[in-house]
Amino acid sequence: MSVTAPSASPPPGGKPEPPAVRIVEPAPTAAEAKPALEPAPAPTPDPAPAPAAAAAVEVRPVEAARPERETSRLRRLLTVGGTLLGLFVAYQILVYFVAYTDDAYVRSDLVAVAPQITGRVIKVHVVDNQTVKKGDRLVSIDPVPFQLVVNQTKAQIEKSTALLKVAQEELNSATAALEASTSAHTYALQQQVRYSDLAKQQYAPVEELDRTNDALRRSAAEMTISQIAINKAQTGILAHQADIALAKAENATAQWNLDRTEIPSPINGAITNLTLQPGDTGTINIPFIGIVDSDAWRIMANYKQDYIRSFTIGGEAWVWLDSEPFHFHRAKITGIARGISRDPGIDKLLPYVAPTTDWIRLQRRIPVTIVLVDKPPDGKLYMGADARTIIFTP
């Protein structure tokens, strides 16, 4: 506060009047500003007697600052609202041309190798996480029991073959006997006709006719016996041929089982989670080795249903692998699922993709299959690892 006392000349012949005092109040600072509703403090009167002078006090009005504050507040609200609206519009434009998801993972085919026979494991030729090629030996099963069955079926084939030869010889003998008895029967028949005519004319004795009749009956009986022997030999041949065919089939089955004692790798891949040890029993059709197929790597990207409107088979995509960060791999779209299951549960023919919270609405996601064009060096991909994918839509 400053006090200014103007100079005054004393009137002639009288006492000088006391000077008028003017009090000027400085403008309040921000720290000293009081709320608009509080009244300004009254100025402290000057203790000096001033009967003839009136103190003039200047005070800055508080009501003038209120419209300025309301204008500033409205300006801030408009700025924030415009910024949020601009960001929302920019986001919608961005997602219209760029489809991004981090709900993606690396996938391949897991081949479960199971023995086709039951037997004791005598050797495991691989170790866990080993890379194998198609045809590499994985496991050896004890071949001795299967080799014995092969030997047994071979012996059965040899036995049936020998019996077949015997039956064929019997058929040949019976056929020769039938031919001989047929010739004898023909001759006896001719003699019987001859002597029968002669006996009627009494040119031949009756005893000759009786002998020709006996010879005719014997030759007929021999023919019958030979025919029976032929039929028996033929039946034996058919039976022995069936035995040989059966023995050969059993031998082929036994040989097939013997060949399955050596289990090769059916694909190119890597052994995973190997726990098999020599001495374990391999049970038919029960897997005991898992191989991750190295030729079936792909990325399964679950995209929101409103993103896939412009996806096309063969379209270009870019993949970020969490196992190889800070590197984008060029890829292409090879498949878009045409259906998903809305109910979680056990494995089904339709895949189940859990919805995720996106603002308020839960967006359903559709699996999109993406295959890497530029694969990592040495094919270092890991089944089940996380990935991120970007697809630029036209």
Explain what the structure shows:
The chain is α+β, with helices and mostly antiparallel strands and 394 residues long. Among the domains are: 100-110 and 291-392, Elongation Factor Tu (Ef-tu), domain 3 (Beta Barrel), CATH 2.40.30.170; 144-259, Orthogonal Bundle (Helix Hairpins). It is built from three helices and 19 strands. The chain is elongated. It starts with a strand and ends with a strand.
Provide key terms for this protein.
Helix Hairpins, six-stranded antiparallel beta barrel, 36% helix, four-stranded antiparallel sheet, 19 strands, disordered N terminus, Elongation Factor Tu (Ef-tu), domain 3, alpha+beta, 394 residues
How are the secondary structure elements laid out?
Blueprint: E1 2-4, E2 22-24, E3 57-58, H1 66-97, E4 98-107, E5 110-113, E6 119-124, E7 131-132, E8 137-141, H2 144-200, H3 206-259, E9 262-264, E10 269-272, E11 281-282, E12 289-293, E13 298-304, E14 316-321, E15 324-336, E16 356-358, E17 361-363, E18 365-372, E19 386-392
Helix pairs in contact: 2-3
